[in-house]
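Model it.
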Amino acid sequence: MNNRLIYIFQEPMVSTAAERYLLIYMIGVLVIVTALVILFFIVFQKRKNKLLIDKIKQQQAFEEELSNAQTEIQEQTLKNIGWELHDNVGQLLAAASMQMNILKTQVSDEVKENFTEAASTVKQSLKEVRMLSRSLNNEVVLNIGFEQSIENELNRLKKLKFATAELHVKGEIVPFKNTKHEIIIFRILQEFFSNTVKYSQAKNLLVKLNYLEDKLIIVASDDGKGFDMETVQKGSGLLNMKSRAKLINTQYNLTSKIGEGVILELKYPYKHE
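Modeled.
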């Protein structure tokens, strides 16, 4: 009798223990499933992020290659134009100068002075064409050097339009390790000069090169009429300058106010050469 009572009282206890084990088992399964879901989600997000990053990198690489290709095409085009100016237009002007010098000896004294002025103009035009052709040829720019190329360009512009066009160099000159970067920065400055000649009505042009330990700071400015940064239409010239600067990791800043001229600032880090 006593044994039966003990068995009867022990049976619910066994049932309760089984339920407890079942509950623990279910909780364990739930934890494992939850952990697997979280792990799957994390792996999925990582793969998704990696694909997005790879896509962005591919897009950036494509854009960089495209910019490089455009730059190379532009440089080749400029070089061809330089050759045409030097070989064709230059030869024609040289022939015209020789002919005018010959004719000058055959005319009367009354018109000889006019011939002298015309011959001088043709001779000066020939010199300008040759200087321009050299500035368009990247090989010539590399041969004579960055600072001298800017100096030549400023001298040419001074004769054409400006009262002063000066280059100031500060610090110890650091040669460019990457010649492509040298050409690109020179072309940016040429674009700035071109816009100044076309639109600024400036009388003075100034370029400052400041060679620091970690970067080259270039500031080009004019004293022209300036423009409103908010309303100006950004043509291909301004866009080309900005895109070229971005291509070589150069900080680009163009500022202007009406009546206060235009200032271009470039910060070129040596470590990105």
